[in-house]
């Protein structure tokens, strides 16, 4: 299943400048999602991070990965309108910088969901190389 940016916004509440997923290219609701983010020089954060050597902030890479997982989690009708809030992040690693012109390819897999809490594993790649990975704990709540 493929979702456009407009369809992603029907599932998760993020909007510009915090919507960090351009397209979902694979989706198995409640299991797994694969998404892409085209990183361009026009991103607002590059004005200050860093003017002489633009690098996508690691926290925004993590947020993009979590949003891909959020689409997998919140796609079913019974979860629409919920928020998935971070409880913790573990095993976070950054492998290389992400710069303008890169395309982030993010894979997120729901490891566990029990009640209103869950765990997600996600990785981000550029040209087949891992650039970031993390395990996220989250809690579901009403908007």
From TrEMBL:
What does the UniProt keyword field contain? Answer: Cytoplasm, Lipid A biosynthesis, Lipid biosynthesis, Lipid metabolism, Lyase
Q: Give the annotated active site.
A: 49
Top-rank lineage group of the source organism: Bacteria
Q: Name one Pfam family in it.
A: FabA
Q: Does the keyword Lipid metabolism apply?
A: yes
Give the record's GO biological process terms. Answer: fatty acid biosynthetic process; lipid A biosynthetic process
CDD domains in the record, alphabetically? FabZ (cd01288)
Q: Name one GO cellular component term.
A: cytoplasm
Reactions catalysed, semicolon-separated, are: a (3R)-hydroxyacyl-[ACP] = a (2E)-enoyl-[ACP] + H2O
Q: Which Gene3D superfamilies match?
A: Hotdog Thioesterase
Q: What class of enzyme is it?
A: lyase
Q: Which residues form a coiled coil?
A: none
InterPro entries in alphabetical order: FabA_FabZ, FabZ, HotDog_dom_sf
Record-level Gene Ontology MF annotations: (3R)-hydroxyacyl-[acyl-carrier-protein] dehydratase activity
* EC number(s) recorded for this UniProt protein: 4.2.1.59
Q: Where in the cell is it found?
A: Cytoplasm
User: What family does the Swiss-Prot or TrEMBL record give for this protein?
Assistant: Belongs to the thioester dehydratase family. FabZ subfamily.
Query: What exactly does this protein do?
Result: Involved in unsaturated fatty acids biosynthesis. Catalyzes the dehydration of short chain beta-hydroxyacyl-ACPs and long chain saturated and unsaturated beta-hydroxyacyl-ACPs.
Q: What is the protein named?
A: 3-hydroxyacyl-[acyl-carrier-protein] dehydratase FabZ
Q: Which organism is it from?
A: Sporomusa termitida
The gene from which this protein is expressed is fabZ
């Amino acid at each position: 299943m493929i979702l456009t940016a407009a369809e992603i916004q029907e599932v998760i509440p993020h909007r510009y400048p915090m919507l960090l997923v351009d397209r979902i290219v694979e989706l198995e609701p409640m299991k797994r999602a694969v998404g892409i983010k085209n990183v361009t020089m026009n991103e607002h954060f590059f004005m200050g991070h860093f003017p002489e050597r633009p690098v996508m902030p690691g926290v925004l890479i993590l947020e993009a990965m979590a949003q891909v997982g959020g689409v997998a989690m919140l796609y079913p009708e019974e979860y629409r309108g919920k928020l998935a809030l971070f409880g913790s992040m573990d095993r976070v690693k950054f492998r290389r910088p992400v710069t303008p012109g890169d395309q982030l390819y993010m894979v997120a897999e729901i490891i566990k969901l029990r009640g209103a809490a869950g765990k997600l594993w996600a990785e981000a790649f550029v040209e087949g190389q891992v650039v970031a990975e993390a395990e996220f704990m989250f809690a579901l709540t009403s908007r």
